[in-house]
Structures are given as structure tokens and as C-alpha cells.
Design goal:
This protein has 266 residues and is α+β, with helices and mostly antiparallel strands. The chain is built from 8 helices and 11 strands. Helix 1 crosses helix 2 and helix 2 packs across helix 3. 33% of the residues are buried.
């Protein structure tokens, strides 16, 4: 019975790490094999071997192999940064080169502002159609999520976020605005607002949504010809008076987009 439980545990860890990081499951099995061969007694031996292999793979091996699959890491610059470095650690920061070009062009458009591009989940490094959960479509290197822009009470734009993860703190519809969220939830799509559980803690509660800053960011993105679609919640699109037909509604089967922006290539 003990052996069966151990096998079941290893299968669970393999599946969990594969879903979370794509490469973690394989590295977990490799670390188990190495730990069995390494007879020297060492406290936390399996964990040390796993994390050593994982970090080596994430920062030195995966970036070299990913271009074979048409993907590369998001290029960090003065204005392009991950909202949370856990995205990088979990290998969720890979995109096609054309999407890096789009981000670079957007950065140039923002040069005269203090607005930065803080990204959330992008894609895994390998294999089209491999799901990056909980997202429905981040599986081909063409998609990336970007944080909204916030400001202080006196209207000063800031690059701080309202949650540790960058997600889950929504800019709800005002009483006079169309409420797509309520419509989706009443239609039975109970997962529509589940990112509220993924904040990893709320911070900077004094900040407010910057209509001006987010509009500048979106209009800078829209200047790219390679942009295929941009998702943002309908009430924010209307509030910012955005008319471009590439700004679409994502549907109730996805999650709500009033805590981030989703962009994708043609």
C-alpha cells in the first residue's frame, strides 16, 4: 500500500509540475532517477537535485532550445518587465519573435511617457497547442497579457500594481455602464471572475484605475500592424472611448478582462 501511495504521489507531482511549468514534470522524473543513483546521504536530496536541475534548465537550457519551436523569451528592457518574476521562473514568458517586435515598437511609442509595459502570462517555450492553464488560447506563442495602468489620487500615473500577481483586482463597471460580468455570471459562467482568488495578496489599495494611462498604452499597442486582437472588458472599452475593430470581446468562456489586457498577433 505504501508503494502504491508513493507512485500515486509521484504521478500527481509530475502532472502538477507539467501543468504549471511545462518542463517541471520531466525534470521531476529525472531528479528521482538521479537521487536513486546518488547513494550519498543528504538531507532534502531529491528537492536539492530537482531545484538545481530546474533552475539550470529554465535559465540556460530552455532559452537555447525554444527557438527551434519558434519562440523566445520576452525581451526585458527599461520599459518592458514582468509584473511578477514568478512568470519567468515558471517558463510562462515565451513568445514568437514578431510579438517581441510588437512590444518593442510599443515601447518606442511610450518613450515620451513614464508608462511601462508590465506583462503577465505569455506562453510556454515548446509545442503548439500545449495548454497554458488556466488560459484558453495561450498555446502558440502569439499571445501575452499586460497589466492595466494605475494612478494616485492626485492623477499621477504609476507603474505599481494593486495585487502581487498583477491579476484579480477588477475595475468594475460603474452604475451607468454595461455590465457584461453580471450577464456572464448569471448565465452560469461561474469561473468568469475566478482570478479574484489569484491576487496573491492585495497591495497599493490607494491606487485607482488610470483611464488616461491605460488608453495611452492601448493606443500605442494599436499602432502595430501585426496586432490581430486586443481583449479588454466592454465597459472599459466604452469608458476609454476606443473604437478600433481589433478590440474584441473575448466571450463568457474566458475570464473577465478588467484586471488586464490580452493582446495577440494576427
Amino acid at each position: 500500500m505504501k508503494k502504491v501511495l508513493k507512485i500515486a504521489f509521484d504521478i500527481f507531482v509530475f502532472v502538477f509540475l507539467t501543468i504549471l511549468t511545462q518542463i517541471g514534470g520531466i525534470i521531476y522524473l529525472l531528479s528521482l532517477a538521479v537521487a536513486r543513483k546518488w547513494t550519498k546521504k543528504l538531507k532534502f536530496k531529491r528537492s536539492i537535485i530537482f531545484f538545481g536541475f530546474y533552475l539550470l534548465s529554465t535559465f540556460f537550457i530552455v532559452p537555447v532550445i525554444a527557438p527551434i519551436f519558434g519562440r523566445e523569451k520576452v525581451k526585458h528592457t527599461k520599459k518592458i518587465k514582468p509584473t511578477n518574476y514568478l512568470t519567468v521562473l515558471l517558463n510562462r514568458n515565451y513568445i514568437q519573435p514578431k510579438l517581441n517586435e510588437l512590444l518593442s515598437h510599443t515601447e518606442k511609442e511610450l518613450n515620451e511617457t513614464n508608462i511601462e509595459i508590465h506583462y503577465l502570462d505569455a506562453n510556454f517555450p515548446f509545442i503548439n497547442k500545449f495548454p497554458l492553464l488556466p488560459h484558453l488560447s495561450h498555446n502558440d506563442g502569439k499571445k501575452i497579457d499586460i497589466s492595466l495602468i494605475y494612478e494616485t489620487n492626485n492623477g499621477t500615473i504609476t507603474n505599481k500594481q494593486k495585487s502581487v500577481s498583477g491579476s484579480g483586482v477588477f475595475e468594475n463597471p460603474k452604475p451607468n455602464e454595461y455590465n457584461q460580468i453580471e450577464k456572464c455570471l448569471k448565465s452560469g459562467y461561474f469561473l468568469y471572475d475566478y482570478p479574484k482568488y489569484l491576487t496573491f495578496r492585495r497591495i497599493n489599495n490607494e491606487l485607482i484605475f488610470s483611464e488616461k494611462g491605460t488608453k495611452i498604452l492601448i493606443k500605442s499597442i494599436l499602432k502595430n500592424r501585426n496586432l490581430g486582437k486586443l481583449f479588454v472588458e466592454p465597459h472599459l472599452k466604452n469608458r476609454m472611448n476606443l473604437k478600433d475593430n481589433r478590440i474584441r470581446y473575448h466571450g463568457c468562456r474566458a475570464v473577465r478582462h478588467d484586471d488586464h489586457i490580452h493582446i495577440q498577433l494576427i
